[in-house]
Task: inverse folding
């Protein structure tokens, strides 16, 4: 494949406001690749796929609009761009495949790429499921104590604590029993506000700062950024996207502000004639294994294959580190929840005992 210069544009007008599921994208790419290889016209293939109920309804509607635009004279990549739901990696890979006349091969690479992204995401989520369950259990325990247990014990003595842990629990009781209609919208509003905040540049900087304070998490985040960068760069280069454009998109895919800043400088060096290996080496951000393997890929003309192997290596590292981190966090969380419940029980007992003594007098 010859590198194709692909202009990186901002997402066009958004007709559908939703985030497609990765499994929908993977299945769409795989089935489209099969149908194109079988000789079915692209627009007809998309119409057929838009009628399959295996996809979500919103995704099917988006495919129908894509088919309509293509029959109206627009290219596949332009129609994808106009939907506003596909990321630039997907769109620019398709554009490179169109210009290179190898769209069926490109769709297979698209499916493999997003399948890898989804696999790693699901593995990390499954590893974190039990720790999140423990935290959720602690929240449920606090609510049960506040709403059901504590009020009955306090009512026996006719005095309500207004300070300390029990005072806080009674405040929660008041919220959940008397002002419950405010709890859900307030919690939902805070959740939405935090989500929007952490999607901003400043919010990402704040998240990076706190995450990097913990060495194991900082190390894991670095490896995750390396994996996303290598996998995205590899699949874009193999699809025919020029190296400079691929570097820019791969940096954004890393979802790491420091990566984006450093890769921007690396990109300028590559445009000035430097080899990718030397530019990565001078950046001082990447471990030796990356720039040495990249150098090998440049020399052999198989940069895409080498980057894929680097990404696979980091995927294994991420899973190993995640399991180690979870194995450390789980007993700590269990101990924390146990101590927390014991502390509440002790506080309740001591307070009630004190109230009972005063009542006896």
Result:
């Amino acid at each position: 494949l010859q590198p194709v210069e692909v202009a990186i544009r901002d997402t066009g007008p958004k007709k559908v406001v939703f985030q497609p599921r990765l499994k929908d994208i993977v299945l769409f790419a795989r089935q489209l690749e099969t149908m194109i290889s079988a000789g079915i016209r692209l627009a007809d293939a998309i119409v057929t796929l838009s009628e399959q109920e295996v996809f979500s309804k919103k995704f099917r509607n988006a495919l129908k609009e894509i088919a309509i635009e293509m029959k109206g004279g627009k290219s596949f990549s332009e129609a994808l761009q106009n939907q506003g739901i596909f990321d630039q990696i997907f769109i620019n890979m398709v554009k490179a495949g169109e210009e290179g006349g190898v769209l069926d091969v490109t769709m297979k690479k698209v499916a493999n790429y997003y399948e890898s992204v989804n696999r790693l995401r699901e593995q990390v989520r499954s590893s974190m499921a039990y720790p999140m369950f423990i935290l959720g259990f602690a929240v449920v325990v606090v609510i049960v104590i506040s709403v059901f247990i504590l009020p009955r014990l306090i009512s026996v003595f006719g005095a309500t604590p207004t300070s300390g842990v029990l005072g806080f629990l009674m405040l929660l009781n008041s919220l959940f029993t008397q002002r419950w209609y405010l709890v859900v919208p307030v919690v939902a509003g805070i959740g939405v506000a935090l989500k929007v905040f952490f999607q901003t540049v400043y919010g990402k900087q704040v998240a990076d700062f706190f995450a990097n304070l913990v060495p194991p998490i900082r190390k894991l985040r670095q490896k995750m950024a390396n994996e996303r960068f290598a996998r995205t760069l590899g699949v874009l280069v193999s699809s025919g996207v020029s190296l400079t454009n691929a570097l820019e998109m791969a940096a954004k895919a890393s979802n790491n502000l420091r990566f984006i800043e450093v890769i921007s400088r690396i990109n300028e060096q590559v445009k000035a004639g430097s080899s990718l290996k030397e530019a990565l080496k001078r950046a001082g951000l990447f471990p030796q294994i990356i720039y040495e393997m990249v150098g090998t890929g440049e020399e052999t003309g198989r940069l895409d294959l080498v980057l894929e192997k680097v990404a696979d290596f980091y995927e294994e590292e991420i899973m190993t580190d995640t399991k180690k981190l979870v194995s450390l966090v789980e007993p700590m969380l269990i101990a924390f929840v146990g101590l927390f419940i014991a502390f509440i029980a002790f506080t309740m007992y001591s307070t009630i005992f004190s109230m009972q003594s005063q009542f006896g007098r």
Notes: Residues 198 and 207 are 7 Å apart (CA to CA).
